[in-house]
Write a structure and sequence with these properties.
The chain is 17% helix and 45% strand.
């Protein structure tokens, strides 16, 4: 697993389709009857990714789309055990993403919302031991300067469910991307070097 994904794990999602639907409903309800749903005929800054479809709404433009990708196995960088039995935890799975962008009437991005779902597993490459997990994130970027991503303030919320039979939760990562707002075991490991934060996960995968 890529380290940035653990950072995103810091906050997870809930019901992306429902939340996304409510945003769309709100925007369309506020759009003028003549403008809403019309195709976009001007450049958008920055341009949306290819999987998103754009249309005109009352207060500018909206682009929305979904995609599914598979990834891994990828080395997470989490080291377990010692000696001949030492191993790095690998991550692989399926990533579902639903993304929405909001542009003003000048075609400049003002807000982006991304809903991520992961159905994945951690593995011990030496033994093949695996632990399935799910992760849900909602990431919201608000741009102080429309069109300029460097001015964005990003908030991520959600949780990761990494549970092993007879052990319970082996890693706790949930809350909001405000440090100290919730258990952040992956951040504790990667940023503070606290091996104890992932000790139970390593044990569950067979570390000695």
């Amino acid at each position: 697993m890529r380290t940035p994904r653990f950072k995103t794990i810091i906050v997870l999602v809930s019901g992306p389709a429902v939340i996304a639907g409510s945003l769309v409903t709100f925007l369309l309800a506020s759009a003028g009857p003549a403008a809403a749903g019309q195709p976009v005929t001007q450049p958008l800054t920055p341009p949306p990714p290819s999987f998103e479809t754009c249309k005109t709404v009352g207060n500018g433009f909206m682009c929305e789309g979904a995609r599914t990708e598979t990834y891994g196995p990828t080395d997470t960088g989490i080291a377990c055990g010692s000696g001949a039995g030492a191993f790095d935890i690998f991550d692989q799975g399926t990533h579902n993403q639903h993304a929405i962008r909001f542009y003003n009437t000048d075609g400049n991005l003002t807000k982006r919302v991304i809903y991520d779902q992961y159905f994945s597993q951690f593995t011990n490459p030496l033994t093949g031991a695996a632990i399935p997990y799910t992760q849900h994130n909602t990431t919201t970027d608000i741009l102080a300067v429309p069109g300029d991503f460097t001015s964005a303030t990003e908030t991520t919320t959600g949780q990761a469910n990494i549970t092993v039979p007879h052990m319970g939760a082996v890693v706790l990562n949930a809350g909001r991307v405000v440090f100290g707002a919730g258990p952040q075991d992956f951040l504790d490991y990667f940023y503070n070097g606290n091996a104890a934060a992932v000790a139970e996960l390593c044990t569950a995968l067979g570390a000695s």
